[in-house]
Amino acid sequence: MQQHRRQPELVEGNLPVFVFPTELIFYADDQSTHKQVLTLYNPYEFALKFKVLCTAPNKYVVVDAAGAVKPQCCVDM
Asked: Is the pLDDT of residue 49 over 60?
């Protein structure tokens, strides 16, 4: 009897993830705060695609603003 491996079903939508830190604070007179790391954690058993949306693109840039996070892994941005 031959067993077929079932492909995971692709689902679109929003899922909660963990982001650390939960808040970024930038100070105009302190350039050391201009670059900060944001870590995105994927607690699920499947990979996630992500996209960081920018509300003020003329004021800041997110490097690698889109990508994927492997199951139970994290990505630094």
From this structure: yes
